[in-house]
## 1
Amino acid sequence: MKKVIITLLVLVVYNLGFSQAINQLDENGKRHGIWKKKFKNTDILRYEGAFSHGKEIGVFKFYKNIRKKAVLTASKEFNESDNKANVKFFTERGTLLSEGQMDGKLYIGKWKYYKGGPDKLITVENYNDKGNLEGERIVYYPNGQIAEKKNYLDGKLDGVSIWFSRDNIVLKEFTYANGELHGLAKSYSPKGDLIVEGTYKQGKKHGIWKYYENGKLTEEKDYTYKSKYVKVNNKYVKRSSLKN
């Protein structure tokens, strides 16, 4: 009987100490130790994780209130030395939706997106330290074949973008600079035959464009123009306003 009483007392003390360790502040008023927060006026968990003197550490789990149940929708594994975290987002059914790294609220580095789990990759993209798209972005068909390949520079399309058919045939090749069409552009038939080629200049067709049927040139159009506007410092101004 004494052993039972002692055991019960130990459990009570342990549970009391454990409950007191939740949602605590250090001597400077910063969150410290295990924290759990619930949705307002409910008993449904919103997030849980641990702080070290105000800094998130380890794995945090975030939930949504779905039909009065806490459903895991994201997890963040924090570094101890900075604000970067390895992040995963989930569907309501718990299937992995996307994963990558964040620095505070910014997406950084490589991110992967899925449709139906990690075996069904649909998009891979890269972000720079400012949270802008940088480098290659690839979109996949459900069968794993590449559908699109695009390149970005600080959040804007830059370089050659290519679109593919499900049979891995190139359908379009467009060139971008600073987020707008600028350079060589080509379009192909589903069989891979060239049907249109020409050049864009600052988002508009420019120069000679060629049109083909069954591999033969059938038409040429001249889009050469001299606009009364010119781009200066990323803004369009009238040529007449410029000094000679």
Note: The radius of gyration is 28 Å.
## 2
Amino acid sequence: MNRATFPHRLLPYLLVAPQLAISLVFFYWPAAQALRQSTQREDPFGLATQFVGLANFRAVLSDPAWLNALRVTVVFSAWTAFLSMAIALLLATQAEKLIRGKDVYRTLLIWPYAVATAIAGMLWLFLFNPSFGTLAWPLRQIGIRWDPLLNGTQAMGLVIAAAAWKQISYNFLFFVAGLQAIPKSLLEAAAIDGAGGARRFWTITFPLLAPTTFFLLVVNTVYALFDTFGIIHAVTGGGPGRATETLVYKVYNDGFVNLQLGSSAAQSVILMAIVIALTAIQFRYIERRVHYG
């Protein structure tokens, strides 16, 4: 096996230095600050601090509002990841069947990913606004009392739909790449043996997409936990009645709105631990079922 050689011993370190610096400044240092702050009770203006150990963590874990945010996060993240991946896979498989205009359809389906998260939330809020929303009017005509600003279940459905729509394009791009990597000869041989379209998909296509699906599962989990903050902030603000207040949004509310710095830092540490644990579980147990051919 050929090994890469560099003309100077310091060159490899210089090449990775920018990435290490970015990781240090924007990840490790803030993470260390959060850990330190989570063990303290601070004045909102930084005039006084008191070391309280694990008191902030105990208060957070026994807080009904935080437990509600945890439940909301589980429901929101599961539905967002499932819908965005399922719809993207359906669109990718259908786009692969096209003969003419395939590239045009792919381009159109990728475009929504360029929309900013907050803009995507405002777009869905505008379309489903109970007073003048274009798509809210048909709901009223069929007798549905649509008002996500007052109905918690409807608000949750709206933010899930907006978050899933925003991520479909990203998933679609990877599923298309995965489908293109599957040898056509395998599908043709299965068709000759009499396997129908559904059977070819579940016995050949979907198992060969396992590496792509596993990668997207990890990415979509992180997306639902963190990157959907802008959608929730723009659409519902965590309401009504905290029905859409996720863990990351509660960190923002307690830290930046209510100025409970110690509690907010403890929540961010717990959230970071949850993400690390979920990722480890996914790699430990789910990746076992992934076959890299």
Note: Residues 59 and 264 are 11 Å apart (CA to CA).
## 3
Amino acid sequence: MEALLAAAADPAYGATVVAVGADREAAGLARAEQAGIPTFLTPFSGYADRAEWNRALADRIAEFAPDLVVSAGFMRILGREVLSRHPVVNIHPALLPAFPGAHAVRDALAYGVRVTGATAHFVDEGVDTGPVIDQVVVRVEEGDDVASLHERIKAVERRMLVDVVGRLARHGWTLHDRQVKLGSAPSVNATEENR
């Protein structure tokens, strides 16, 4: 989130952060407030079930009328109530479809891969199963543990997320049969699969 705020401070970037939201208290909310960005909190515990929470979250997001939602560090599965109204981009610390889920770096090391990386993808109702937008390879080094490898992946993720969000905002995209085509539309388009 901080990398996106820094990039958006440059008018040439082509994207503006209109709000920062979370499902629980997080340092990113304070950072956004310091930057003068509106924030909101939609705690999961405040709702009877996942569908009700997703509807409330979708309504809160809609108040800011974003063209694109970025799930940076947001660790909850978003449901149809959100995804049918807002295209959502996520970043994942592995080369999807390999190693989905919350323990991707640990799982990649346990499997013994020589390379892993980061994936920017559109979010669908699965766990890290949405259409891939971009990927960057990170080599696994001798002696890597989860912490050291994850730190190198995070550096790649930040750069890739800033690049991908900027390109989507400036040039739009189309999605057909899971193939994301950047720069193929005059403005941001909602993804077919999320409608």
Note: The chain has one domain: 1-182.
